[in-house]
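The instructor's notes for this session suggest beginning with a concrete chain rather than abstract definitions. Hand out the sequence below and ask the class to guess, before any prediction is shown, which regions might be ordered.
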Amino acid sequence: MEDIATAAGTSKSVFYRYFGDKAGLQQAVGEVVLSQMQHRIREAAQSAVTPREGLLAMVSAYLQMADTSPNVYAFVTSYAPADPVSPPHHAAAGGPLGHFFDAIADMIATPMRSHLGGVGEAVIGYWPKAAIGLVRNAGEQWLSTPDSPTKPTQEAMARQITAWLCVGIVPELTPASPTTKLSAKEGL
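After discussion, reveal the predicted structure:
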């Protein structure tokens, strides 16, 4: 808190008066940052023609925003105060982050419902949150991977995550002729 107050050109007491403690500051920052991310992800999805294009746009926006400010992203998504009654919990359990993921799940589910009609309705309630888990975990691993020639670009990582969401890893596991492999890769 002292470092933040100094950087802001004010005293620690001002931050404690407005935010109470580090958890209060984290929640306030989280609400602003997550609102910006949600807005950017919604904009990205709205420009898509197909559900897959929408997923790619959303994954790209998420990775780009997290990569642009990795320290802010980590601050907002990784810290959660311990509840004195229960063991420490992950930030995704509720609060601004939980609301953010619920809103994103709704953004994902809507085009999927339209695309699938009534056919996948029984699982569509589960898939968006599972998709978010995959995007978040793969994205955070990608963010923490040091730059190297083997590290995918942000665009390549977004395309790979989208492919995992849409077709899984089956194309990578299934032996196929060279022309079939080329067709599967082109679909990414």
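Then share the key points. The radius of gyration is 19 Å. Residues 105 and 130 are 9 Å apart (CA to CA).
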